[in-house]
Amino acid sequence: MAGTNGRRWNHNIHYHPRILDAVPAGARRALDVGCGEGTLARALRRAVPHVTGIDLHAPSVEQAREHPGDVHYVVGDFLTHPFEPASFDVVASVATLHHMDAATGLARMRDLLRPGGVLAVVGLARSTMPRDLPRDLAAVAVSTLHRAVKGHWEHPSPTVWPPPVTYPQMRALAAELLPGSEYRRHLLLRYSIVWRKPRD
């Protein structure tokens, strides 16, 4: 279901600006990991000349290919697909890392970036109870309000619940694998990681 303004909304799309705002000036090639039906890939294409989206879920990729737009879509596993190392200026991923071993996925994304390139991730993690209960209750309240105003679009891609990694574990992984990265936990049950690969 689209929102009242005709635009799609869900928790993942809500945080797409976090990805798009991280795109570095002059970026030429971007990779959307776990692109699904291509909402983020199409948005990236408005800022980056060459965009590739990759996803294991063939029906979602077929839907992506039905949309007009100059995006190259691949059905495959980004962990093993023969991308050239250090070949992308932007590697982006939304709601994908919890479908795989998070450390392996982050390391692969890091290795596909050119020096000076940016990795931008929005992901799901598991709350730790009872500490996170007040935050989660607030998230439900705000989410209900968003849905009432904007509607809710259900993506066609497979889901995994609960996420295998907790928020503190994701923060620790980001600090270990992406030194200097910015990790943020967001209200609507998401976290983000933004990291620029050093040039030397």
UniProtKB/TrEMBL annotation:
Pfam families associated with the record: Methyltransf_11 (PF08241)
InterPro entries for this protein: Methyltransf_11, SAM-dependent_MTases_sf
Coiled-coil stretches noted in the UniProt entry, renumbered to this chain: none
MF-aspect GO terms: S-adenosylmethionine-dependent methyltransferase activity
GO biological process terms held by the UniProt record: methylation
The entry's keywords: Methyltransferase, S-adenosyl-L-methionine, Transferase
Domain called Methyltransferase type: residue spans: 31-120
Name of the featured protein: Methyltransferase domain-containing protein
